[in-house]
Design goal:
- By secondary structure, the protein is an alpha+beta fold.
- It folds into 2 domains: 10-156, NADH Oxidase (3-Layer(aba) Sandwich), CATH 3.40.109.10; 157-196, no CATH class.
- 35% of the residues lie in helices and 16% in strands.
- The strands form 2 sheets. A 4-stranded antiparallel beta sheet has the order 1-2-6-5, sandwiched between helices. Strands 3-4 form a two-stranded antiparallel ribbon.
- Helix 2 (28-39) runs antiparallel to helix 4 (99-117).
- The protein is globular and about 55 Å long.
- The structure holds flavin mononucleotide.
């Protein structure tokens, strides 16, 4: 019998950026798994540029939240804010393209799917003042803040889940381009399953 599933992974199927969290800290064994997932991510020449600052203390979350764009005020309710910082010097630049950003994205995505498997939902953010974030967390000046991800255990209240899903639908968050728009086969502009 094949060990390979022919279906989309549940973590991919179910992941969504929602912020209806339960008021519970992230368990330490769950941190271990998420951080291991992030650590195992591939990177160009194995440079591993991602550095994480994990903000879990309520007082620190509140302080960091002051550096966020006002539309990201919901983040103050997260169980933790995961701040991903990196410096371009730690990774490749090829033809003007800085790969530290790509490699950091791989690491964060890996963490997010592991989190999802543990019942932890996440919402990434780029709406914040970088200098304020760096100042607040004492991140050295040569590092760039790449993304901040708010995480928490998803609420088990049906009403809050419905509201989160309704908000998501209202803002069209679940929408994706279909493959005809983003995927070509053999050559740019060519499509159709007959070309596979
Ligand atoms: C790099 C990045 C930055 C984002 N920045 C914000 C943000 O500042 N505020 C916010 O509410 N959501 C932010 N999001 C969440 C996106 O809006 C969300 O991922 C997108 O609408 C797709 O929805 P889904 O993740 O539920 O599938 C960000 C997501 C990514 C990947």
């Amino acid at each position: 019998m094949s060990m390979h599933s022919e279906e989309l992974l549940p973590e991919i199927e179910n992941r969504k950026s929602v912020t209806n969290w339960r008021n519970a800290p992230i368990r330490s064994e769950h941190w271990d798994l998420m951080l291991e997932a992030a650590r195992r991510a591939p990177s160009s020449w194995n440079h591993q540029p991602a550095r994480y600052v994990l903000v879990t203390d309520r007082e620190h979350i509140q302080r960091l939240s002051q550096s966020l764009h006002r539309t990201n005020g919901w983040a103050v309710n997260a169980a933790a804010l995961v701040v991903l910082a990196a410096t371009p010097e730690d990774d490749d630049r090829v033809a003007g393209k800085d790969y530290y950003l790509y490699d950091c994205g791989l690491s964060m995505m890996s963490m997010i799917y592991q989190a999802q498997a543990l019942g932890i939902t996440s919402r990434q953010m780029i709406g914040w003042d970088e200098e304020q974030v760096k100042g607040c967390l004492m991140i050295p000046s040569r590092y760039r803040v790449v993304v901040i991800t708010a995480i928490g255990y998803v609420s088990d209240s049906l009403a809050s889940t419905k509201l989160a899903d309704w908000k998501r639908t209202l803002t069209g968050q679940q929408k994706r381009y279909n493959a005809q728009h983003t995927v070509y086969w053999q050559r740019w502009g060519e499509g159709g399953s007959s070309l596979r």
